[in-house]
Amino acid sequence: MTEKKYLRWYNVVGYGSGDVAGNVVYAFIASFVMIYLSDTIGLNPGIVGTLIMVSKFFDGFTDLIFGGFIDRTNTKMGKARPWMFWGFFGCAAMIIAIFAIPTNMGQFAQYAWFFIAYTLLNSVFYTANNIAYGALTALITKNGNERVQMGSARFMFAFGTSMLIQTITVGAVQYFGGGAEAWRTVAIIYAVIGLIVNSISVFSVKELPKEVLEEETQSIPVIRENHPLPNENYSFRESLSLILKNKYYLILLSVFLLNQIYNATLGIGIYFMIYILGDGNLLGPFAWAINIPMIVGLLFTPMIVQKMRGMYHVNLYGYMLGFIGRVLVIVAAYMGNVPLMLVFSAIASLGISPLQGTINALIAEASEHTFLTQKKRIDGTMFSATSLGVKIGGGIGTAVTGWLLAASGYVANAETQSESATNMLYVMYVWIPAIINLLVIFLLSKLKVEKANRELRENAPLNYQIIDR
Question: Which residues contact 114 (CB under 8 A, 6 or more apart)?
C-alpha cells in the first residue's frame, strides 16, 4: 500500500534550509572561535579550551530538559516550531556577543564574557532551536520516504554551508580590515542571514494536528497480540543499567567520542594553514576537499548499504580507506605538497562518509538489541545519551586542542612559531586524525549488531517476533 504524502518539494527544501541557519552558528564557532580568541583578543587557548569543555557538560544535559519542554508545548504554531523560531533570536544575539568581546576589558572579564555567552548560545538557545528542528521530522509527516528526503536535504545544506563558511570567512575578515571589529561585523552578517533562513524554514512547513499524528501508521513494529508491549516508563537508573548492558551501544558511544575529538583536531586547521602552509585562505580549498566527498558519499551510502546487505562492511571498509587517506595526508604534509594533501584529505573524507549516514540507524539497531535481549525499549534514552556523549566528546576534543597549543609554546600572531609549536600543529592536524581513524576501525570491527539482532530474531519464539501490522 502506498504511503500517504504530506509534503511538496518546497516543504522539503524549506525544511532542509534550516541547517543553513544552524551552521552559520555551528561552523563559524567550530572553525574560528579559538583563533579569534587567541590571536585577536589575546586569550590563552588552554584556558579557552577548558571553558568550552565545562560549557559542553551543561550543553549535553539541557538536551533532555528541552526535549521535555517541547513535548509539553501546545500552541497554534505547534510543539516544535515556536522553539525553533524564537530560539534562533537568542542564537543570533549570542554569536554576536561572542565575537564582540571588548578589547579594553581585563582578561578575567573577557573569559567570563566568553563563557557566559558561549554557554547561553549552546546550552539554551542553540539546543532549543536544534532539538525542535530535529523533532519536526516526526511532526510534519508520517511518510517514511519523506523523512528520508528531509534528512538528505538537511545534510546537503549543512555540509554546503559549513564548506562556504570555511571558504569565505578569512577573506571576509580581511576585507573588513581585520581585528576585533572585523570579526564582529562578520558575526552580525552571519546572524542576520541565520535569522532570515531560520524563519523561512519554520514557516515553510506546518505541524500535523495531534489527532493525525496519533493515528496508527501502517508499519509500526508491534508484538503479537498475545504478548503485548511492555510498560516503557523506566526510571533513569533502570535505563542507564540497560544501556551499560549493551556492548554495541557502548562501542557506538566510543565511536562518537573519538569522532568529536577527530573533528576538533581538524578544527584547528586555520592554525595549520597560517603557520605551516603560510596562507589562512587555504582553509577554503581544504573545506571543499573534505565536504564535497562527504556529500557524494552520503548520496550513495543507501545504495551501497543495500547492495552489501548491511552497514557493517560498508563502514569498516570505508574507514580503512579513510585511514589510508589520513596516512597519505601525513606524508604529503611533511613533503609540503598542498595539492596532494587536498587529494588525500578528499579520499579520507569519502571513506568515513558512510558512517555519518548510517550512525542513527546503528543507534536504532543497538536500541533494538536491548529490546530483543531485555524486552524493554529505551529508544529515547539512547538517542539522548548519545547526544550527551557527542557534546561531551566535542568539549573534551576542543579542550585538548587548547591545552596542546598552550603547552607547545604557541605565540599568537608570531611571524614564526617555535619548533615545539610547529611540531604540535603537525601532531594535531595530521597525526591525531589518523590515529583516531585506526582506533575507530578497531571498534567498527566489533560492531556486529546487525548480525546479532538477525540471529536473535531467527531464534526468537513466535510470540516474541516483531511483525508489521
Answer: 37, 43, 48, 51, 98, 101
190, part of any domain: yes
Domain boundary among 178, 213, 248: 213
Closest CA to 91 of 69, 116, 124, 59: 124
Non-local CB neighbours of 89 within 8 Å, separated by 6+ positions:
125, 195
Helix (H, G, I), strand (E, B) or coil at 467: strand
1, part of any domain: no
Same domain, 333 and 238: yes
Task: Choose the final residue of a domain: 161, 179, 213.
Answer: 213
Express each pLDDT in 316-373 by its tens digit: 999 999 999 999 999 999 999 999 999 999 999 999 988 877 776 677 678 778 877 8
- Domain holding 391, by residue range, is 222-468
Element holding 351 (H helix, E strand): helix 338-374
| 378 phi and psi angles, rounded to 5 deg | -135, 45
Give the residues across from 223 on adjacent strands.
466
Specify the DSSP class assigned to residue 222: E
The predicted structure's pLDDT at residue 127: 84
Residue at 4 is within a domain: no
Give the span between the Cα atoms of 467 and 191, in whole angstroms: 48
Q: Would residue 2 count as lying in a domain?
A: no
Same structural domain, 246 and 379: yes
Please tell me the total count of domains within the chain: 2
Residue of 254, 257, 246 whose CA lies nearest to 445: 254
In this structure, the number of other CB atoms found within 10 A of the CB of residue 99 comes to 29
Angle, to 10 degrees, between the axis of helix 283-307 and the axis of helix 312-335?
160
Which residue has cell 556577543? 97
The answer on 47 and 28 residing in a single domain is yes
Cα-Cα-Cα-Cα dihedral sign, residues 134, 140, 145, 149: negative
pLDDT at residue 467 in the model: 42
Cell of 260: 568529536
Spans of the chain below 70 pLDDT: 1-3, 60, 63-64, 67-68, 71, 138, 144-149, 151-152, 211, 213-236, 239, 360-361, 364, 377-390, 460-469
